[in-house]
Amino acid sequence: LESIRAKITLGIVALLLIMTIVTTAVAMERSEDALRNQITLTHEARATNAAHEIERALDRAKSITRATAIENEMVRPIEQDDLENGTVAEGRLPIKRLMLEHAHHSDDLFHGALVLDRTGSILMGEPFALQQEIDQDIQDPFTADRFRRLAEFTAEVPSPVVHAGSADEVWTVSARLMQGNEVWGVLVLVASTQALAELLGTTDGDTAFFILDHTGTVLIGPAGFPPGTDLSDSVERLQGAPRQSAVFEHEDRRYLATLAPLGDDWRLIIAQDSKVAFAPVDAMLATILLVSGIVIVIGVATGLFVAGRITSPVVRLKNAAERVAAGEYGTQVRTTAKKDELAELAAAFNTMSARLLEEHERLRRHQANLQTTVQERTAELKEANEELEAFVYAASHDLRTPLITLDWLMEELEAAIEQDDTKTLQDSLTRMRNNVEGMDRLILDLLELSRIGRTEGDPEDIMLRPAIENVLETIDHQRQKRGTQIHIEFDDSAVVQADPRRIEQVFQNLLTNAIKYGRANGNVHVRATPIGDPHKPWKWRIEVSDDGPGVPPEHREAIFQLFRRGPQAEEDQADGTGIGLAIVRKIIRSYGGEIKVTSSGDGGALFWFTLNAARIGAPAARSRRETDKSRPETEKSPQGSSDPSAPQAGSTDQAPDSPPAAAAPTGVPPTERASGNA
Amino acid sequence: VAEKDQTDAPWNVLVVEDNPDHGLMMQRTLTNDGRIHVTLARNAANAHKELDAKDYHAIVSDHRLPDSDGVTFIKDARAAGYSGVVLLVTAQASDEIAEAGIKAGADDYVFKARGYANRVLEELLAHLGDGE
């Protein structure tokens, strides 16, 4: 992801760089060309202007000298006495004043004037001193000689002559001074190199000028180019170049040189250090580069920013995705209000993550359910297996025990017959009958047990009240014998889903046990409590409690197993097959309920079990028997359901060890006895 | 406990048996030849009481008892110092219980089968005879 950011940044930067470089290059090239052209043009104009300046100055000088020459009569050789007296004779005006009168102003270029005689001696000068002084001053033989030659030359030429020289005063315009037809002297105007440079604006140190004659020979040149230097090649080259400009190299420096005509046959060359001349180009290029640099810096910063803006949501998404991958389902990324593709992606990611969490939770629950189911199934299987083992163990014992007894009793019977012992005979026969009945009961119970859950129809909604009243009738005989009072403490609202015959079996077994193990003349309570909404319960909890010795905690699980009886049952030699509670538990479990035994408040046994409540309320419940309306029984009556007959309890059979014929085999539908209670 | 005229019998035997028919069968069978006096106990608790109260030459205990089992009872009796003959009677031909009984201190065992009372008598006489 970081590389995406880098790539985007790099892309943006590279794009900006390329654009900037191309733009810069094009701009630089065009600008440089244009600027160079412009500079060259300017240079050319400068050279032309310089030439014009010189020409103008020369023209002025010529006009001065010409005019002076014309009026030369006014200019006479200064007499020695004039010099000595410092006076000027009438009609002899100072040369300077004369010049000013013609030129009207001081000339920039020419700073002095001289009158020379034909020999080149200075007759007078302005601001030059007198001849003597001049002679003293002008020690330079070249200058002196030059004046001489100038005077000689000018004397031969009829019009003002321009000379260019290489000394300090390099410019001279001279004109003949006539007296009659005779040349008596020469008027010379003098300019200095410095003045010329100032006129041309070449005093900056980077610029130089050359004045060449028509052959290309230097008349005036900078240091290194003395008069007489031949530059005809350069002139030719310049003449062939556009705008008569070119760049020359001299002593490791480059110069932009431009040629301009000076007068009719002289030439002026202005040369400028190209670095200086083209400095604007460099400045412009530097500016362009600076601007480009700024553009690139701004571009890189913008690129980083944009890349960050683009990639930071992606980075957030990546981090969130990694957390999801690590198992943190449901991880959400921050979404912005923006409606771009990344925001949509983030929203989609959040949805996906939430869905993952949901699915994960669902799977986890499913797995947990599966595990629970497997554990339950395993426990059920284990229990079934143990039940089977217990059955095999118990059957071998409980079925063989009476057989062994019968076998022995038959021997006793034989002996009694032999000895004519009627009492033993009777006793043995009774015992044999009891054992046979016991075996029959056992086998019937086993058959019943095996039938539970196999031959059931769909459970119906049945009211508990009529069902238990049927049972009470069936066991009334036993109840009376023990003097037990049974209290039914619920009303017709208790409706459960079950087979009515099975529910009666459950109550018959539990009530029989309660009567059997409860105290004589004790109390048995039957309660039903709704679980959940009292008006619309989803289950009922039914309790049967007695006031007997109860079941010790360590036996509370075992008594529901096949052939296992509580210690009290064993102790009392209570009759029973050890199957009853196993049947009860199997019935309750077949309806998805559970059954437990615990201690009632007064130490007796309290059996409770749960059954599903009626599916659609109580009214649809079917009552097994509606005849109970004849029995005016109150809820929670301390008198119990069948108490009115209690005083007659035990009247039918007082024999303590008589067979419990009254106890109908469990599971057999209650026989319709005459309801003597009413 | 059914009493017979057997007070002169030389050997006192305690029979621990919860089934009354089997108890009677044991009593009648063992006392037949007059050498054994039988006391019946219906459960382990009563049997321990009997052992505390009286000297017994032998104990015959059923494995299945209402308040315990024969093996445990035998172990407890041996732990309490009983040194007489002990026979364990088990309902099914289970070698495991028989072995556990021997380990717990029983001298021998008898499986409950038809006529097993006679086998108990034979074993008793054999062991008591050895002891003499």
Structure write-up:
The complex is a heterodimer of chains A (678) and B (132). With 678 residues, chain A is an alpha+beta fold. Helix content of chain A is 50%, strand content 18%. Chain A has 16 helices and 17 strands. In chain A, helix 1 runs antiparallel to helix 9 and helix 10 runs antiparallel to helix 11 (422-451). The longest helix of chain A is centred in the middle third of the chain and has 79 residues, at 341-419. Chain A starts with a helix and ends in a 66-residue tail after the last strand. Mean pLDDT of chain A is 75; it is low at 86-92, 129-134 and 617-678. Chain B is α/β, with parallel strands linked by helices and 132 residues long. Helix content of chain B is 43%, strand content 20%. Chain B has a five-stranded parallel β-sheet, sandwiched between helices. In chain B, helix 1 crosses helix 5 (116-131). The longest helix of chain B has 16 residues, at 116-131. Residues 1-6 of chain B have low confidence and may be disordered. Chain A binds chain B through residues 393, 396-397, 400-405, 407-409, 412, 431, 435, 565, 567, 569-571, 573, and chain B through 18-22, 25, 28-29, 42-43, 64-67, 91-92, 112-117.
